[in-house]
Amino acid sequence: MSAANSCPQAGTSRPSAVGSLTTVELVWVEDRINHWLRFGRPAAERFVGRSRRVVSFAAGAIFGYLRWEGNQHGTTDMRLAILAAVEPGTPIATVPGVRPGGELLLRLSGWPRIKRGLAAIDAVETHGFDAADVSPDYWRHLHNRLLIGELPRVYGADQHRAWLLRRRISP
After folding, report:
1. What residue segments make up the domains of the chain, in order of their start?
2. Cα-Cα-Cα-Cα dihedral of 116, 122, 81, 57, to 10°?
């Protein structure tokens, strides 16, 4: 994996957008494509046919997005991304299905890493936190630890409280 692919901070300048919503295309085609949200609170949702819908996120919203594709031989591609929607003009990373892109907090590919990432999300939720409210720093930590095959820290009440206080005083 190249350094550009493993760095959750890599990105390009965001093109000017109409409004400040980040859109995510969710698709389901039986046994071929499944793009879905693992967590997040969309600001809007629009259905585009039976197998497609588009959800939109306001700047600052954090969401988890999974992409699975397969064929008659099995899985051909699987990726997990956790992103934060950003204001127009903010540097972004591009992710297929996410327009125009977002601040990439975590990006994993391959079933073993994705399985550990999903287990970490489950653990956060088991401890009573909504994954969409978790500190972006924790998702970056999780990304880095999973990429090198190490165990991540557990997200706890102290870290969450510190994040909420920091968010309250930050512009």
Report:
1. 10-169
2. 180
Model confidence over 72-127: pLDDT tens digits? Answer: 888 888 999 999 999 999 999 999 999 999 999 999 999 999 999 999 999 999 99
Tens-place pLDDT, residues 34-45: 999 999 999 999
Dihedral Cα 144, 146, 150, 153, nearest 10 deg: 70
Q: How far is CA 95 from CA 16, 46, 66, 79, in A?
A: 17, 20, 11, 10
DSSP string, 38-93: EE---SEEEE-SSSEEEEEE-TT-EEEEEEEEEETTEEEEEEEEEEE---TTSEEE
Chain-centre distance for alpha carbon 146:
15
Q: Are 103 and 84 in contact (CB under 8 A)?
A: yes
Dist. CA 48–CA 154, nearest whole Å: 39
- Residues 44/21, Cβ–Cβ less than 8 Å: yes
CA distance 139 to 8: 10
Give the amino acid at 69: E
**Residue 23: alpha-carbon gap to chain centroid:** 12
Q: What is the pTM of this model?
A: 0.85
